[in-house]
Amino acid sequence: MLRPLSPDTIRPPFARYAHGVEVPAGARLVVCSGQLGIGPDDVAPDSAEAQAALCFANLDAVLAEGGMGRADVVRINAYVTDRTHMTGYMAARDAWLSAVPDHLPASTLMIVSGFTRPEFKVEIELIAAQMP
Predict the structure, then answer these.
(1) pLDDT tens across 18-44, in order?
(2) N or C: which end of the chain has fewer CB within 10 A?
(3) What does the domain layout of the chain look like in residue ranges?
């Protein structure tokens, strides 16, 4: 069982995430590469929220291929190209996590200077763990 770690001795998280997640020994891991907000048609929507939703849909597909789902996610690393994209990313993340209300992964959000194509605004990677 994955155990969220949010000590009472430090400030609570700023949003829907845990400060840490304990992964028990013997767990099976899936490590996902960063997914960009682009569909199979090679089109990236304009808004950061729509791109983030596509990133999470792509991550759902990778998790499913590994026999896992959202409840198995222990860490999310997200990157946006501007502070103005944070709100859209966080809305998509919170909507994605609403399917697992009792499980909050550890999470980091960073602002970066850009990605491989100028239309990309969001990239998300994650780690998932599951007991065999």
Answers:
(1) 999 999 999 999 999 999 999 999 999
(2) C
(3) 30-130
